[in-house]
Amino acid sequence: MDAFMRFALNVREIVRKDPVLVVAIVLAVISCAAVPPDAAYAEYIDLRTIGMLFSLMAIMAGLSRLGVFRIACRHLLSAVRGPRRLALALTLLALFSSMLITNDVALVTFVPFALLALRTLDSPRHACFTVVMMTIAANLGSMLTPIGNPQNLYLYSASHMRIGEFVLLMLPYAVAALVLLVGAIAFFGRIPEHAKGTAARGVGAGSPAAGETPQLASEADDPAPSPLRVLPWAALFVLALLSVAHILPYQAIVAVTIVVALAADRRALLHVDYALLFTFIAFFVFVGNVGRIEVVSSALAQLIDGHELAVAVIASQVLSNVPAAILLSGFTSNFAALIVGTNLGGLGTLIASMASLISYKQVALVLPREKGRYFMLFTVWNIAFLAVLAVLAAVLEVL
After folding, report:
1. What pLDDT digit, counting tens, does each position of 187-241 carry?
2. Which among 189, 180, 182 is positioned nearest to 389, based on CA atoms?
3. Residues 150 and 280 sit within 8 Å (Cβ to Cβ)
4. Number of domains in the chain
5. Does a structural domain hold residue 16?
6. Which of 72, 261, 336, 348 has the lowest CB atom count within 10 Å?
7. Per-residue pLDDT averaged across 147-159, rounded?
8. If you average pLDDT over every residue of the chain, what do you get?
9. Cβ–Cβ < 8 Å for 124, 373
10. CB 256 within 8 A of CB 239
11. First vs last Cα of the chain: how many Å apart?
């Protein structure tokens, strides 16, 4: 009985920590009952996407563990004066960095540092607003490049687009996102009068404010890593970009990534999100099997046909945009609409983009009394951004 209870508790913990992975595995197992495993299963899995995701996550983990991104953030904020400029600097940092280091890495790295700096302003509302803007910025900035988020890397690979094509497709939305973010901060990024005295002294420089958690304070004091330690990871990142552009084979990049990690920082391999990789594999199996069930496949293809963008946005609200991209790609060849739809679909609910949960958890940890305020601001602003960008998508579709 004790063994059964321990097993039940372990299962419950897995479901709590990664429900999307659990759902993906359940769907894959159910589909295997309808389509028994055979040689065709080998064709289901996009090994290029899995390999490149693994390599990029390992590279980002290596650079993050050296403190490269936190140090860059600290130097940027040391020159910022005033709460509105702070909010803008943090938001633009999330927007542009997510294009290269992915939306989840940008939020994992910069949101804790942002909360550290924002606490000196003594305005929880401003802190929540700024983190909401950073989260939206990371999700929207990441849509511009194939490596910005996992679903982009997959859809880019599956569509056989060129990088220039992909960027041009998403460029109008990225520009619109930049304008909307700057406008939102300009008009709504004010801070209450009682906090202006603190803000005037500047942020990002000097000693941490009283009451900060030790972890955040220590992160603000990271020493600069040796260039010799950064160089292997930086070179590897350049090679990964060449592989994304189909100049180098992905197999070689995966092999070199493992070699560099074992030589430079083995623990970087432990920070790879293997749950995400297994989620991809499970969904690949499910979609592959469903595609072989003629009745179901035809019904789904008819439902999606001509409505790819809208279906992708709606599906992302309940599934999140990564599994939505994998599922829908099995029943349509209109990859351009799926790319736009799953990227815009990252706005909306808290689970529309799993990266958004990173910010929520950080706010809950550092400002536990503000969870309700943050959730309300997050939902309102996400719906507003989604509505505007959806109108832009409709206009561009007509043109």
Report:
1. 998 775 555 544 444 444 443 443 333 343 444 456 778 888 999 999 999 999 9
2. 180
3. yes
4. 1
5. no
6. 72
7. 95
8. 87
9. yes
10. yes
11. 65
**279 neighbors 327 (Cβ within 8 angstroms):** no
DSSP characters over 4-29: HHHHHHHHHHHHHH-HHHHHHHHHHH
Burial class (CB in 10 A: 0-12, 13-18, 19+), 35: middle
Token pair for 284: 């690949």
Distances (CA, A) of 246 to 44, 152, 162, 240, 284: 21, 15, 9, 10, 22
pLDDT attached to residue 297? 86
Nearest to 91 by CA among 121, 68, 117: 117
Any idea how long the chain is?
399
pLDDT value at 179 more than 50: yes
Give the pTM: 0.85
DSSP 3-state of 362:
helix
Q: For residue 258, which phi and psi values (nearest 5 degrees)?
A: -65, -45
Q: 244 lies in a domain?
A: no
The owner of tokens 């995400």 is 276
Task: Look at residue 154 in the predicted model and tell me its pLDDT.
Answer: 96
In a domain, 202, yes or no: yes
Residue 238 in any domain: the answer is no
How far are the Cα atoms of 15, 249, 276, 343 from residue 256, in angstroms, in the given order? 34, 11, 21, 30
- Cβ-in-10-Å burial (0-12, 13-18, 19+) of 344 comes to buried
| 316/319 Cα distance (integer angstroms) | 5
Do residues 304 and 311 touch, judged by C-beta distance below 8 A? yes
**Environment class of 302 (CB within 10 Å of its CB; exposed 0-12, middle 13-18, buried 19+):** exposed
Residue 290 and residue 329 in contact, taking contact as beta carbons nearer than 8 Å? no
Number of CB atoms found within 10 A of residue 281's CB: 18
Tokens of 234: 């930086």
Domain hosting 216: range is 67-224+273-398
Assign 295 a pLDDT band (cuts: 50, 70, 90): confident
Q: CA-to-CA distance for 219 and 204, rounded, in angstroms? A: 12
Determine the Cα–Cα distance for residues 181 and 132; give it in Å rounded to an integer: 10
Q: CA–CA separation, 139 vs 31, rounded Å?
A: 31
Give alpha helix (H) positions in 221-320: 227-244, 250-264, 274-291, 294-304, 308-319
Pull the structure tokens for residue 279. 């989620």
